[in-house]
């Protein structure tokens, strides 16, 4: 795995593109600038790693667009030391961007093949992340409550368990909708019993499916 000057240059350009598209959080842009996205793609796609596109990563899944990763990360408003739960590890790219921001990251993937592949990759890259093979609809009760929860697959509804595992003041960033497209939604837990909701634009994710797959 080589991160050449050429790759670094392409990453700088990508960061400028994201800035032009409206991403403002300098911390987030810096994290995108640091994480070598081409490590997360099969060799055939290396040339395209720094264009703002989604690509297949195996098991019928895709790595999210860089803009989507930046947008969701910005909405989470993470601070160093925050405890963050991610649903849909996939390639591990979003996981690595969060790890770069200094958070304690717990990430769940339901596809065994992807879970195994990404676990190996992140270990090789020495990225500090806790990966779990399981069903994200249930969250992860062991480490709750979380400062933030990020769902990187399209959810048909807001899973109750994820709301329960949010700290008061915590933020849940989740694309909600059917297969066609989803609305990026931010839920903030205002108190033990109150939640507020803000909706952002349309995005397109692979579906959030129930139960683990082999
Ligand atoms: N964050 C990933 C995005 C991968 S696509 C990246 O940066 O590459 C979304 C992922 O969510 C897929 O890998 C899919 O298998 C996974 N997924 C779908 N439903 C899930 C569920 N219920 N629990 C955990 N993962 C799920």
Describe, in plain words, how this protein is organized in 3D.
The protein has 214 residues and is of the alpha/beta class. The chain has one domain (51-203): Rossmann fold (3-Layer(aba) Sandwich). It is 29% helix and 27% strand. It has six helices and nine strands, in the order H-H-E-E-H-E-H-E-H-E-E-H-E-E-E. It has helices at 5-20, 26-34, 66-76, 93-100, 112-124, 160-164, and strands spanning 55-58, 61-63, 83-87, 104-109, 130-133, 146-151, 166-177, 182-189, 195-203. The protein has a seven-stranded mixed β-sheet with strand order 5-4-3-6-7-8-9. Helix 1 (5-20) packs antiparallel against helix 2. It starts with a helix and ends in an 11-residue tail after the last strand. The mean pLDDT is 95. The structure holds S-adenosyl-L-homocysteine (SAH). S-adenosyl-L-homocysteine binds at residues 57, 61-64, 87-88, 90-91, 93-94, 108-111, 114, 135-137, 152-153, 206, 208-209.
């Amino acid at each position: 795995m080589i991160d050449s000057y050429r790759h670094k240059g392409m990453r700088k350009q990508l960061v400028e593109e994201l800035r032009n598209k409206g991403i403002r959080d300098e911390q987030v842009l810096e994290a995108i600038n640091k994480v070598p996205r081409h490590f997360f793609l099969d060799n055939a796609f290396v040339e395209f790693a720094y264009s703002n596109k989604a690509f297949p990563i195996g098991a019928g899944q895709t790595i999210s667009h860089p803009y989507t990763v930046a947008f969701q990360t910005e909405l989470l408003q993470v601070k160093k030391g925050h405890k963050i739960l991610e649903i849909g590890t996939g390639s591990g790219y979003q996981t690595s961007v969060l790890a770069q921001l200094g958070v304690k990251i717990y990430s769940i993937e339901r596809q065994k093949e992807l879970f195994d592949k990404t676990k190996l990759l992140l270990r090789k890259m020495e990225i500090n992340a806790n990966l779990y093979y399981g069903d994200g609809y249930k969250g992860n009760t062991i480490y709750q409550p979380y400062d933030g929860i990020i769902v990187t697959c399209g959810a048909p509804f807001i899973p109750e368990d994820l709301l329960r595992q949010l700290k008061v003041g915590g933020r849940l960033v989740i694309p909600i909708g059917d297969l066609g497209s989803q609305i990026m939604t931010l839920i903030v837990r205002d108190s033990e019993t109150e939640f507020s909701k803000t909706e952002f634009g349309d995005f397109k994710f692979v579906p959030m499916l129930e139960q683990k797959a082999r």
